Task: structure prediction
Amino acid sequence: MEVLLLGTGAADGIPNVFCACPTCTDHRDRGELRTPTSVLIDNRLLIDPGPEAPRQVSRLGRDLIGCTTMLVSHAHSDHLDPAVLLHRSWVTQTPLQVVGPAAAIEWSANWLDPAQTSVTFTTLTAGQMVEIDGYLIEALAANHHAYTGALCYHLGDGTSSLLYLTDTGLLPPATLKAVTGRQVDLVLLEDTFGTASDKGDQHLNLVAFATTVAQLREVGAIGANSRVVPVHLGHDNPPLAELRQAMADIGAEVLSDGAELRLP
Ligand SMILES: [Zn+2]
Ligand SMILES: [Zn+2]
Result:
């Protein structure tokens, strides 16, 4: 399985264009952009088609011509910009599945002519499992308010597997239970709030990130060979050098937009 990180940032990305904090300045000085979190699997499964995902695909020299599935975590604007479906409809009528929680599906469907038949919509709720284009996708409960709900995902192709855990605060017990004993190759785990501790429980900060990694280790979802990568990074995180150290202490590695991972 190839996992291409199209975006690793929170909704406003880093730098936040209005901000002069050390982290935004650090990113500006180094010329690094973190765009909203989105992932492309094997060039054909796009997780979280947010506002910058299509352009990131182009910037990275890829395309979505072979994209068969769009998997949406929730209907917040950094994770879903349904205009992508309209833009797609102008050039192709090849089959596409759009999968996600009810509000995301409803919002997406509103952007297409109801008479079109190429896009199939599938609504998921936590605990449901679907097999799509060779991937077994399991919807997991997230700790995040978003209209009809937000979902995290366990995704596998029979050989490799990953957990996509954004947006969420500390994982609900049902999610920890669902992943118990199921060691994955990769965990993409959000760390929106970094060193901030006063922004609520709908996202993780560094302390809650460490707690979640420890919990996932304890239930066996993270093992010796699992890679842990923070995503949905917001500017409350420290500048890169410091963040790298903090993540290394937790057993996680900081990657940039455009990073390609090959799972065994
Ligand atoms: Zn988000
Ligand atoms: Zn900032």
